[in-house]
Amino acid sequence: MNTPNGWSPAQHARRRPFLMARGHIKSAIRDWFVAAGFTETECGALQVSPGNEAHLHAFRTAFETDGGRSMPLYLQTSPEFAMKKLLAAGETRIFDFARAFRNRETGVRHAPEFTMLEWYRVGQGLDAVMGDTATVVRLAARAAGRDQLVFQGRQCDPHAAPRMISVAEAFDQLAGIDLDSLLDDADGLRAACRACGIGISDVASWSDIFSAVLVARIEPQLGDGPLTFLHTYPLSEAALARPLASDPRYAARFEAYACGVELANGYDELTDPGIARARQSAEMDLKQRLYGERYPLDEDFLAAMAQMPDASGVALGFDRLVMLVTGAPSIADVLWTPFGRLDEVAT
User: Fold this and answer.
1) Is 130 in contact with 267 (CB distance < 8 Å)?
2) Strand, helix or coil at 234?
3) Whose CB has fewer CB within 10 Å in the chain, the N or C terminal residue?
4) Which residues contact 125 (CB under 8 A, 6 or more apart)?
5) Which helix (H) or strand (E) holds 19?
6) pLDDT tens, residue by residue, 256-299
7) How far apart are CA 335 and CA 248, in angstroms?
8) Helix boundaries (H) for 214-254
9) DSSP 143-196
10) How far apart are alpha carbons 86 and 79 in whole angstroms?
11) Radius of gyration of the chain (CA)
């Protein structure tokens, strides 16, 4: 009987072509990084802090010593902190197929345990890692024997020249909102949001309103035809990205989209620990207000940041990439051991 359990022979046989393609894709990407002079790392998943973004939710555990002392730890939401410590230690080109964990995330595009392909280049800038991203997507398609990425009836050509559009341009063209004039105006952005048909509460923060527009009006229109790079984010949405010298209201950040699906997030990396501490503390204050919890700051990471060279990095959802290049209907179909029942995780 064809049950929704991933271990059933019928379900495994259906998913196995996707899983075989996953292996080919991973090998092709690894070979490319090694040939380009990158060193593969294997960062530990247990961290003092899982990351300090208000809306990311981590899995918490504890290290118990032989003497009975307990130290709280978290499963990483990405290998970012660990890999940046390696940059501070002297590495200049690194990549990792890292296990990452995020709570409260399931569905067609999300899994609580997933693979994050993350890489960093020292001293080469955001254009270089955007080029890497386009190359990785093309390599994946080629390794899977596909000439298009597909998802829910949509198509993206990985071999076409990528489309470049700034966040401000996207808000103007796709939502009819003049974002540049509303960067410090939550009430104005709220009114503009409602004017384009998006319901938003009276108490929503500027960032929440920005995200609502992004999700409802911008992201669904990105990545049909060519791969799309959405770039130059407002500084408040930049986490650990470097402010632009030409306009410090914005930051050197991009996200890559195919078929309306976010595939990758990249930065010119912030190297000022004072700014990082302030941003992370503010995020944890917001998390405390919204969810009644906060995560500690990784003091070792902040100390390492002061020694980091100028670098650019990308975090790419490897499972999502496999899903799109194989035509799998759900992220659960490209995971060897998906979490839960397939009929639950794929909705």
Assistant:
1) no
2) strand
3) N
4) 268, 312
5) helix 9-35
6) 999 999 999 999 999 999 999 999 999 999 999 989 999 999 99
7) 41
8) none
9) HTT-SSEEETTEEEETTSPPEEEEHHHHIIIII---GGGGTT-HHHHHHHHHHT
10) 11
11) 20
Tens digit of each residue's pLDDT (9 = 90 or more) over 309-334: 999 999 999 999 999 999 999 999 99
How far apart are the C-alpha atoms of 273 and 304, rounded to whole Å? 9
Q: 248 — phi, psi (to 5°)?
A: -70, 0
Within 10 angstroms of residue 235's Cβ, the number of other Cβ atoms is 18
| Order of strands across the sheet that contains 149-151 | 149-151, 154-157, 225-226
Calpha distance 137→133 (Å, rounded): 6
Contact between residue 80 and residue 136 where contact means Cβ atoms under 8 Å apart: no
d(CA 41, CA 302): 20
Predicted TM-score of the model (pTM): 0.94
Residue 234 makes CB contacts below 8 A (sequence gap 6+) with 167, 179, 183, 210, 249, 250, 251
pLDDT digits (tens, 9 = 90+) for 19-67: 999 999 999 999 999 999 999 999 999 999 999 999 999 999 999 988 8
Residues with Cβ within 8 Å of residue 46, at least 6 apart in sequence: 61, 63, 73, 74, 75, 76
Within 178-315, residue ranges assigned H as helices are 186-195, 206-213, 273-291, 299-305
Alpha-carbon distance of 221 to 211, in angstroms, equals 15
Distance, in Å, from the CA atom of 344 to the CA atom of 32, rounded to the nearest integer, reads 36
Tokens for 216, please give them. 């409802």
Q: Are 323 and 334 in contact (CB under 8 A)?
A: yes
Residue whose token pair is 């499972």 = 319
> Do residues 130 and 229 lie in contact, with contact meaning Cβ atoms separated by under 8 Å?
yes
